[in-house]
Specification:
Helix content is 26%, strand content 26%. It is an alpha+beta fold. The chain folds into 2 domains: 100 residues, Glycoprotein, Type 4 Pilin (2-Layer Sandwich), CATH 3.30.700.20; 66 residues, Hypothetical protein ph0010, domain 2 (Dna Ligase, domain 1, 2-Layer Sandwich), CATH 3.30.1490.150. Helix 1 crosses helix 2. The radius of gyration is 17 Å and the shape is globular. The relative contact order is 0.17.
Length: 195
């Protein structure tokens, strides 16, 4: 069974990289990693396939009762995807400084979504497509990242998206016009209710 195509906010369709089976494997792995950590045990997994062992950037987002409870990710491909999913799932559940650690009674109602990132590529401001591209803006040692779904959720236009990514980096909102580096990526997003 092939996965549904990815769609941008503009309605454009893009081929999905991960099959329904691969999506299910990664989501189960995220849930298992969280449950294992909640029990105070060490989680380990073997590579499910060569494809899922490729180094990739990924963000894991968790919701409980419809409310955000954590989002942590690796923007760069620093670990095999299956391991990056397990590590970011545990970090989203227990280490996101914006939220208290997940409690055991919350785990049964946990909803996980994953955003698997493409490699970063330089991009000009006018090439950015809302709903398709995520952004990384950096200057010196300051760097901010926003996922492709963020401007869609907030109803931002391209300029606002650029400004908000600059602010995420701790830079002035117009830093993108003043020599900051702009890079883009795409993300294949799927979750418990979207797999």
């Amino acid at each position: 069974m092939s996965p549904p195509p990815e769609r941008s906010s503009t309605g454009a369709s893009y081929p999905a990289e991960f099959s329904c089976e691969e999506r299910t494997i990664l989501l189960k792995l995220a849930h298992a990693a969280i449950a294992t950590a909640a029990a105070g045990e060490y989680f380990s997994a073997e590579p499910p396939s060569a494809h899922l062992a490729e180094p990739r950037g990924v963000f894991t987002t968790i919701h409980v009762s419809g409310k955000l409870r954590g989002c942590v990710g690796y923007p760069a491909p620093i670990a095999p995807l299956y391991r990056a999913v397990a590590e970011t799932a545990q970090a989203a559940a227990f280490e996101d400084s914006r939220f208290p650690p997940l409690r055991a009674e919350e785990i049964p109602g946990l909803v996980v979504s994953l955003s698997v990132l493409s490699r970063l590529e330089p991009i000009r401001a006018e090439q950015i497509e809302i709903g398709r591209h995520g952004l990384v803006i950096s200057r010196a040692n300051q760097r901010g990242l926003l996922l492709p779904q963020v401007p869609v959720e907030h109803g931002w236009d391209r300029t606002t998206f650029l400004e908000q990514t600059c602010k995420k980096a701790g830079l002035p909102g117009d830093a993108w016009r003043e020599g900051a580096t702009i890079e883009a990526f795409t993300a294949e997003v799927f979750g418990d209710s979207l797999a």
